[in-house]
Design brief:
The protein has 13 helices and eight strands. The chain is an alpha/beta fold and about 325 residues long. α4 packs antiparallel against α5 and α6 packs parallel to α8. The radius of gyration is 20 Å and the shape is globular. The N terminus is likely disordered. It binds zinc ion (ZN). The site of zinc ion has 4 residues, from loops.
Amino acid sequence: MTLSSQLSKAPHSNSPLIDIHVHLYESKESGSNAKDSYVIWEYGEDPNVEFSTVSGDLEELSNTYKTGGFDRAVVVHLFDTALARAEAKARLSPKYSREGENLLKANLEIDIAVGQAMIESNKWIAEIGQTDPLIEVMVTVDPTLLTPKELVNHLSDLANKGIVGIKLHPVSQGYLPSDPRLFAIYDVCSDAGLIVLSHSGLGHHGGASARPSEFASVLSQWPNLQLVLAHLGGAAWQEAEELARVYPQVVFDLSEIIEWEGAPNAPSQHDMSTLIKNIGAERVMLGSDFPWYDPSRTVDRVMGLPGLGPGEQAAILGGNATSLLRLD
Ligand SMILES: [Zn+2]
């Protein structure tokens, strides 16, 4: 038995094992495309990062999580807006150029098609969450694709489908967490007890950003909102502790950043332990960002963090997510 498999079997044999940050794709091809087109740039170069080779369709997800002994895989759905736009453009633009109509009209029809594709994508993933006991679902909300009213209506259509929350990606979708287009969504999530899990990290084009400090005004305005910041702040991880100190309701996942430990803009293993201790292990959850990374290896990485006791490890690996998802 290798050290890593010993580690991954040790403390959680009786305690829950939950991955709070998972992606699922309709096909191996769409999963591979998503992985190829999503560039992880913010931590700097790290040739030691180990990426998973799977593409992330349902078959691979089920195999991976069953083999790894997981109780739940929480899919935080990220609809690929850029891909949907390219597909709609290929389908609709030629029609307009043939008929000699203007580009504006074509763009409008493309926007409507992309918004509709997001709705269909969410319905697909919500359906899987309803039928597969391994999977919980947070649906995509992209406030650049639908009006606030349309988004609220869409969420209320999904309300009886067992979704546990929504996923935001301010950087790839192009806005700030405090964007007024999200206010109605924050109201709905806060009132309905839906989790908001957002990407966090640096912005890299335009005004978009998801640094932890950008969430302060949201947490002030919606004190009952259950907000999870993914990646422990990403390359802006040094802001996470202060946000956590001021806003006791915000919690974090370890996805991605734990695989990039030691990269130029990522914490060292020692920094990571210190950060988790200072925030409180009861506020940090295992996340793998499957299919980018292998969830069992992420478990090993959590177990390898120095200075965490068995109770803290068990909390991170599933205890905290059990409470958050109200599974107990
Ligand atoms: Zn992710």
